Amino acid sequence: MAAPTTSASAPPKGETQVRGLIASVAGNAVQVTQQSGTATVDFSGSTKISEVSAGALTDVAVGSCVTARSKDEGQPAASVRVSQAVDGKCPQGKQPTTPGRHAPIQGMVASVNGETITVNTAGAPQTVTVTDKTKYTKEAPATSEEIAQGKCITARGSENGGALQATSISVRQAADGKCPDGAGRHPR
């Protein structure tokens, strides 16, 4: 098992995360190849499944949810993830705990005007500036059919009997058979 690490996308305390390339799927069991070895992820009908794909500024619309990250505070966004609101609300992710890292801007889009996105955050509205170098992804609800060999997976849940019992799974297409951030299992 890999040593614990802290990152902006770290799972909440008490959860375990598995990230890597899906080697095989058999029923509700997924074998995942990670940098630190292999892991098993089990899922059920109650597991929240989503798929992440390439997006564009045109996917950012009033009422959608965004998470915007920049390399340095006050700089244009390097990346923007777009998702749909659930029951009129946007989920709030965990804030980074790594010294020197600033929190992403998260919330519901209030307006889009050219390269400026106004986001209603948990605190007050904030402005996100984007450029032609900003990378966009969109996250949408998916079914277990999207969990397939050769895709990248991030699964969160609790470990039981040597397998991760997933409460949430996010999948995306691999790039040349590799996952961009294929970090291993991180116990919390």
Automatic annotation (TrEMBL):
Taxonomic placement: Bacteria, Bacillati, Actinomycetota, Actinomycetes, Mycobacteriales
Q: Which organism is it from?
A: Mycobacterium paragordonae
The family database entries (InterPro entries) matched by this protein are listed as:
DUF5666
Provide the residue span(s) of the region labelled Disordered. Answer: 71-103, 164-188
Q: What is this protein called?
A: DUF5666 domain-containing protein
Superkingdom of the organism of origin = Bacteria
Domain called DUF5666: residue spans: 106-169
Q: Which Pfam families match?
A: DUF5666
